[in-house]
């Protein structure tokens, strides 16, 4: 295993984002259509938060509804904005941060995704799943 491998080798660089003005229904749709668990929230080019599927589950019944069924969460989603639900105090890394450093951060924190930011621009996202897949590739 290479100790200095940068996170850019395992991060997702084609990042699905939400604008802070989007609604939570849009977020739920993106989570389900793309089978993802974390979406960076942006205002212009700046990342201002991270919304996780777990954040949605805390306020809704999103897990109980199939994508093609009637949405029972509409009323709940209209009560909150993305900015009220998302995590705001983000830790980010840059694309040259080593995979080992990312693993250390994620192992000590209570979240499972980190935005990758270079020169104040979101360039990727790395998750615990990315780390596990990297480790599996080593065997």
From TrEMBL:
CDD domains per the UniProt record, alphabetical: CBS_pair_AcuB_like
Q: Cite the InterPro entries for this sequence.
A: CBS_dom, CBS_dom_sf, Diverse_CBS-Domain
Q: Which Gene3D superfamilies match?
A: CBS-domain (3.10.580.10)
Superkingdom in the source lineage = Bacteria
Q: Which organism is it from?
A: Aquimarina atlantica
Q: Where is the CBS domain?
A: 11-69, 86-139
Which residue stretches, if any, does this entry annotate as coiled coil?
none
The protein's name in its UniProt record: CBS domain-containing protein
Q: Does the keyword Cytoplasm apply?
A: no
Q: Which PANTHER family match?
A: CBS DOMAIN-CONTAINING PROTEIN (PTHR43080:SF2), CBS DOMAIN-CONTAINING PROTEIN CBSX3, MITOCHONDRIAL (PTHR43080)
UniProtKB keywords: CBS domain
């Amino acid at each position: 295993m290479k100790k200095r491998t940068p996170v850019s080798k395992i991060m997702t660089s084609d990042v699905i984002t939400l604008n802070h003005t989007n609604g939570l229904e849009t977020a739920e749709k993106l989570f389900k259509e793309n089978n993802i668990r974390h979406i960076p929230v942006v205002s212009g080019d700046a990342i201002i938060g991270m919304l996780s599927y777990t954040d949605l589950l805390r306020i809704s019944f999103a897990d109980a509804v199939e994508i093609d069924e009637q949405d029972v969460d509409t009323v709940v989603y209209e009560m909150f904005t993305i900015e009220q639900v998302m995590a705001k105090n983000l830790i980010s890394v840059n694309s040259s941060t080593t995979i080992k450093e990312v693993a250390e951060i994620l192992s000590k924190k209570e979240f499972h995704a980190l935005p990758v930011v270079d020169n104040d621009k979101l360039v990727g996202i790395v998750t615990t799943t990315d780390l596990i897949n990297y480790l599996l590739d080593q065997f």
